[in-house]
């Protein structure tokens, strides 16, 4: 880690490993979250961007240490996850997020992404975070811009949609110091 990384290192977690945002709390996953996550991911408005999850896949892929349950108003309203490229030459983290449609548009997505970004910068010593929404996911792009992410460029025919055709993605990045 760079000296900048060391200087910025400060714990943002509590004893349980939870991360506190303005309204949201990001909680480490427990087995009970599998069904709650599946309920969110099978909402049509979410499944459009997070297709093909069933309970087995949720348990396999979304109950790990790099996933948090997003809690607000004392209930689980979504999930947020990160991955890390540990190659020292390119070290950075990536983030992905899904929220139940009933809470969209209230700033909770921005709150969750901001809270995880703070953890990745401060506790895990990253200097750069990327996120790659579908190029036509205007709500997600706007929410990430609100946190400070910038548009890097279009990833042409980046991901296959539920209709079986390839769709463009948008690469966005956020450097330490740009978090809003
Ligand atoms: C993407 C997502 C996490 C954003 O969270 P959110 O809490 O709904 O978003 P926020 O309230 O933080 O921000 C939404 C922004 O988009 C704007 N917005 C909402 N609907 C919009 C639309 N149809 N067109 C353009 N902008 C829109 C809002 O005004 C707000 O911008 P503002 O802060 O400038 O007012 C959430 O909507 C979600 O889970 N969607 C389904 C799954 C998904 O798309 N995941 C992301 C995959 S990369």
From TrEMBL:
Keywords: Acyltransferase, Transferase. Pfam families: Acetyltransf_3 (PF13302). The keyword Nucleus does not apply. This is GNAT family protein. Belongs to the acetyltransferase family. RimJ subfamily. The lineage of its organism: Bacteria, Bacillati, Actinomycetota, Actinomycetes, Pseudonocardiales. Residues 24-177 form the N-acetyltransferase domain. Residues 1-21 are annotated as: Disordered. Gene3D superfamilies: 3.40.630.30. InterPro entries: Acyl_CoA_acyltransferase, GNAT_dom, N-acetyltransferase. Signal peptide: none annotated. It comes from Pseudonocardia xishanensis. Coiled coil: none annotated.
């Amino acid at each position: 880690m760079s000296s900048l990384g060391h200087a910025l290192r400060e714990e943002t977690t509590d004893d349980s490993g939870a991360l506190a945002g303005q309204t949201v709390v990001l909680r480490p996953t427990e087995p009970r979250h599998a069904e709650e996550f599946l309920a969110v991911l099978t909402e049509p408005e979410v499944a459009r961007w997070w297709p093909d999850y069933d309970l087995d896949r949720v348990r396999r892929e979304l109950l790990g240490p790099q996933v948090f349950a997003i809690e607000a108003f004392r209930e689980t309203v979504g999930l947020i996850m990160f991955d890390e490229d540990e190659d020292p030459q390119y070290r950075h983290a990536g983030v992905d997020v899904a929220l139940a449609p009933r809470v969209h548009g209230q700033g909770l997505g921005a709150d969750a992404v901001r809270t995880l970004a703070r953890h990745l910068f401060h506790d895990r010593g990253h200097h750069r975070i990327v996120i790659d929404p579908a190029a036509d996911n205007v709500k997600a792009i706007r929410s990430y811009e609100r946190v400070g992410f910038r548009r890097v460029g279009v990833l042409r025919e980046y991901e296959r949609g539920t209709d079986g055709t390839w769709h463009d993605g948008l690469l966005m990045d956020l450097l330490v110091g740009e978090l809003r």
